[in-house]
C-alpha cells in the first residue's frame, strides 16, 4: 500500500474509533428500541440491495443466486427478525437464586454490551460471516467496526457501500483492506474482537488481543471428518456428502474435509457419490451454473498440487484461467499423503477406510479437534460413542452441514478450530458481558463475617457454608 494511503486510512480509523467510543458512552446503544431500529435498518438495507449483493457474489465466486440466498441472505434475514423479536427478552436482567448466607438479598445477571467491537469476516460466505456476527453485536448493544475479507473484493465493496451509506459511522462502520489494515486494527484497543478465518491467522489475532486483554471469538477451520459406517443408508449418505462437500466448491469451513468409510461399503458408496456428482452438476461441472470457482490463484495452485494423478477416482480436471477445479474424489489415501496435512478448503474429497470402528475413533481422538464431524450410520451405540468420545465444534448425524442452519444450536469450534460460538441468542451472549450484581438489605447485618474472629464464629461459618 502507498504510504500516503495507509496514513489516510489510519487517520480515518483513529477518528472512527474515537467517534464510536464517544457514541457508546452516550448509552444510546443500550436502549432496546435503538437496537431494534438499527436491526430493522440492517434488514431493509440488505433487502433493498439484494440484487447487487447477489451479483457481487457471482462476480467474486461465481456463486448462484440460489446459493447466495439459501446459504447467506435467507439465514441473515431469519437471524435479524429473530433478534428484533427477542432482543428485549435477551437483554433483560435475569434474577437468580440467592444463597442462604446472603439473605436477605437478591441476585441478578445483567447482560451489558462490551463497547466497541471489531468483526473480521471471511470471504467464502462473504455476507453470512460478516453480517452474522454483526447481528449479535448489534443486538447486544455494541458499536461495530466490520472488516470484510479482501479476497472477495466485489462483495467487500458492496457491503462497504450499502452499510456505510445507511449507518452512522459512530455506530457501524465498514473498513475495507487487506493484511496491513487488519494488522493496524489489531494494534488498537477494542472491547471485543470476533474473527473468522484460518487457525494460522487466528493465533495472530489472539496474540494481538492479549496485549489489551480483549476478549475474542475465533471462528477457525480444520479437517472435519465424515465417517460412513457399514450400516449407513448409503444412497442418501452419498447424496448428502456430495451436497455438503461441493456446495461453494468445497470452500466451506464445515465441509466434510475427508471421507472415512468402512471398507466393506466403500465401493458402493463411491459409486453412489459418482452418480450424485453427475446428477447435481452434470457430465461437465465446468458448464454448470451451480458449481463455483476457486476464490483466487494462490488457493487454486494450492488445491491443484493436492491432486495426485494416480489416486484420482473421479474428476481431477482443472482450468487455471477460470480458477476451475472439478469435483474430485481421491481414493486409496493415507495420512501420509499431502492432501491430509492441512484443511483442504476446496472441491477435493480424499477417501480413507477403516475396518475397526474403535481403532478409527481412537485415531480421531489423537488429531486436532475439528470444527465439524459427520457420522453416517444407524447404530445408536456407535453414534453415542462418537458423541461421547470425540471432541469437535458441532456436527450432524446422517447428514452434512445442516447443524449450522438451526439457530438454536450455538455455532463455533473447539481447540484448534476456535474459541466461542454465536447465532441467535448465542451471538447476543457472545457480545455481552454478563455482569453479576447482588443487592443486599440494610435492616439487618449479621456480624459473623467481621473480625475479631473466634472459634464460635468459625463453627458457625462451617455450618452455614
Ligand atoms: P485467513 O485467515 O487467511 O484470512 C482471514 C483474514 O485475516 C483476512 O481478512 C486477512 O486480511 C487477514 N490476514 C491474513 N493474514 C494476516 C496476517 N498475517 N496478519 C493479520 N491479518 C491477516 O482465512 P481465509 O483464507 O480468508 O479463510 C479460510 C479459513 O477460514 C479456513 O481455514 C476456513 O476453515 C476458515 N473459516 C472458518 C469459518 C468458521 O465459521 N469457523 C468460516 C469461514 C472460514
Q: What's the structural blueprint in terms of helices and strands?
A:
Elements lengths: L2 H23 L6 H17 L1 H12 L3 H27 L2 E3 L8 E9 L2 E5 L7 H12 L3 E5 L5 H14 L5 E3 L4 H8 L5 E5 L2 H13 L4 E4 L5 E4 L5 H13 L11 E5 L3 H16 L15 H8 L7 E3 L3 E2 L4 E2 L2 E3 L17 E7 L2 H9 L6 E5 L3 H10 L4 E4 L20 E2 L4 H7 L1 E9 L14 H10 L1
Parallel strand pairs: 3-4, 3-6, 4-5, 6-7, 8-9, 8-15, 9-14, 13-14, 15-16
Antiparallel strand pairs: 1-2, 2-18, 7-17, 10-13, 11-12
Bound molecules: nicotinamide-adenine-dinucleotide.
The site of nicotinamide-adenine-dinucleotide has 26 residues, from helix 7 and helix 8.
Q: What is the gist of this entry?
A:
By secondary structure, this protein is α/β, with parallel strands linked by helices.
Structure in words:
The strands form 4 sheets. Strands 10-13-14-9-8-15-16 form a 7-stranded mixed β-sheet. The protein has a 6-stranded mixed β-sheet with strand order 5-4-3-6-7-17, sandwiched between helices. The protein has helices at residues 3-25, 32-48, 50-61, 65-91, 128-139, 153-166, 179-186, 199-211, 234-246, 266-281, 297-304, 357-365, 380-389, 424-430, 455-464; strands at residues 94-96, 105-113, 116-120, 143-147, 172-174, 192-196, 216-219, 225-228, 258-262, 312-314, 318-319, 324-325, 328-330, 348-354, 372-376, 394-397, 418-419, 432-440. The chain is built from 15 helices and 18 strands. It is an alpha/beta fold and 465 residues long. 42% of the residues are buried. A hairpin with an 8-residue loop joins strand 1 and strand 2. The protein has 2 domains: 3-220 and 417-437, Aldehyde Dehydrogenase, Chain A, domain 1; 225-412, Aldehyde Dehydrogenase, Chain A, domain 2 (3-Layer(aba) Sandwich), CATH 3.40.309.10. The model has no long low-confidence stretch (mean pLDDT 96). Nicotinamide-adenine-dinucleotide (NAD) binds at residues 120, 122-124, 129, 149-151, 178-179, 182-183, 196-198, 201, 204, 219-221, 253, 343, 345, 371, 413, 418.
Amino acid at each position: 500500500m502507498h504510504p500516503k494511503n495507509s496514513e489516510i486510512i489510519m487517520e480515518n480509523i483513529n477518528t472512527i474509533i474515537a467517534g464510536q467510543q464517544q457514541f457508546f458512552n452516550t448509552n444510546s446503544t443500550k436502549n432496546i428500541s435503538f437496537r431494534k431500529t438499527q436491526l430493522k435498518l440492517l434488514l431493509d438495507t440488505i433487502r433493498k440491495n439484494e440484487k447487487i449483493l447477489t451479483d457481487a457474489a457471482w462476480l467474486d465466486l461465481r456463486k448462484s443466486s440460489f446459493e447466495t440466498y439459501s446459504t447467506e441472505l435467507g439465514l441473515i434475514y431469519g437471524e435479524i427478525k429473530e433478534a428484533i423479536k427477542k432482543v428485549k427478552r435477551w437483554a433483560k436482567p435475569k434474577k437468580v437464586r440467592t444463597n442462604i448466607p446472603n439473605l436477605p438479598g437478591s441476585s441478578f445477571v445483567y447482560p451489558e454490551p462490551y463497547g466497541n467491537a471489531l468483526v473480521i469476516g471471511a470471504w467464502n460466505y462473504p455476507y453470512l460471516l460478516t453480517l452474522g456476527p454483526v447481528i449479535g453485536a448489534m443486538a447486544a448493544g455494541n458499536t461495530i467496526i466490520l472488516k470484510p475479507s479482501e479476497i472477495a473484493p466485489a462483495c467487500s465493496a458492496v457491503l462497504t457501500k450499502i452499510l456505510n451509506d445507511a449507518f452512522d459511522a459512530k455506530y457501524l462502520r465498514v473498513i475495507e483492506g487487506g493484511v496491513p489494515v487488519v494488522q493496524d486494527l489489531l494494534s488498537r484497543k477494542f472491547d471485543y474482537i470476533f474473527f473468522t478465518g484460518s487457525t494460522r491467522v487466528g493465533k495472530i489475532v489472539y496474540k494481538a488481543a492479549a496485549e489489551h486483554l480483549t476478549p475474542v471469538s475465533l471462528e477457525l477451520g480444520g479437517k472435519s471428518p465424515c465417517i460412513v459406517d457399514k450400516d449407513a443408508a448409503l444412497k442418501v449418505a452419498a447424496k448428502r456428502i456430495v451436497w455438503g462437500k461441493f456446495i461453494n466448491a468445497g470452500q466451506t469451513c464445515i465441509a466434510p474435509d475427508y471421507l472415512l468409510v468402512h471398507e466393506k461399503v466403500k465401493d458402493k458408496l463411491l459409486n453412489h457419490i459418482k452418480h450424485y456428482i453427475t446428477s447435481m452438476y452434470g457430465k461437465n461441472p465446468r458448464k454448470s451454473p451451480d458449481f463455483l470457482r476457486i476464490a483466487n490463484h494462490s488457493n487454486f495452485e494450492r488445491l491443484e498440487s493436492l491432486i495426485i494423478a494416480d489416486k484420482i477416482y473421479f474428476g481431477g480436471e482443472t482450468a487455471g484461467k477460470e480458477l476451475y477445479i472439478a469435483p474430485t474424489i481421491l481414493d486409496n489415501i493415507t495420512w501420509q499423503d499431502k492432501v491430509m496435512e492441512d484443511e483442504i478448503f476446496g472441491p477435493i474429497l480424499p477417501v480413507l477406510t477403516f475396518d475397526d470402528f474403535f481403532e478409527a475413533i481412537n485415531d480421531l481422538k489423537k488429531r486436532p479437534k475439528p470444527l465439524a464431524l459427520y457420522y453416517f450410520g444407524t447404530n445408536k451405540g456407535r453414534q453415542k460413542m462418537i458423541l461421547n468420545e470425540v471432541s469437535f465444534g458441532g456436527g450432524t448425524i446422517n447428514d452434512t452441514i445442516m447443524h449450522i442452519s438451526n439457530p438454536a444450536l450455538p455455532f463455533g469450534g473447539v481447540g484448534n478450530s476456535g474459541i466461542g460460538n454465536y447465532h441467535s441468542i448465542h451471538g447476543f451472549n457472545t457480545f455481552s458481558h454478563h455482569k453479576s450484581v447482588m443487592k443486599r438489605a440494610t435492616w439487618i447485618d449479621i456480624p459473623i463475617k467481621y473480625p475479631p474472629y473466634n472459634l464460635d464464629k468459625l463453627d458457625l461459618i462451617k455450618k452455614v457454608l
